[in-house]
Specification:
alpha+beta; 6-stranded antiparallel sheet
Length: about 240
Amino acid sequence: MFKCIGRLLIVTISLAACSTFNQSSKIDWSYGVGSNVDQIWTAKVEFYRNDKLIGGSRINGLGPSTSSSSISDKLYYWAGGGGVPLGGIAIPDQALVEIVSFYDRKRYRIKVDLPKNLADQMKKKYLIDGNMDERSWLYFGFAPGGYYEVLLKGNRLLVKPDVLILRGIAQEVTDDWYDKKFPIGISQYKTTIDNFNKKYGELYKKHPIPTGMEWAPIMDAYRAKQPKTDQHPIK
């Protein structure tokens, strides 16, 4: 349940927000992409406002990997995905995220509409044991079978529960020219996926994991067990 998981390489390209955006929508916020019992490669993240690209990054790196105990003991929770601040741009109304799932050996993409009151949700502060926190961490979680959730998490992991914004099944990307030339798992990412399978393949066979929308009630139950610390909002 750590906010930051090591990546092989992080290359961030921030794009300046258009001067016509409402300045009040600019706050300190961050985003992350993570998983639960999978290992993913985050290929692309883009943020839009009024149908215009306003920022994003090409992370080009490994996200969280699973662990033996997570598989065998069914410890299903969203991990990793922190540490990419984007306070210099306006709050987006759309996001595009593309990842490669090593468990599925597939590339997935989502383009989602974000809530109109997202900025208000991010700005709201809470006092927790004398410490301030706010849900300004926009998190994109991907699970095997293409399941995804978009969440708001506490910037300091103090305010809970996490807030579910969206969920669904990501689109499998089948028209990527590079994937056609260098198939995932056969030539592209081959060494990393082979190592992933050597480490966890037998465990997955022994302890089958959920897939697709089977994840929805599982992740709902996880959030329901989180402590409710958002009892003292600061107006």
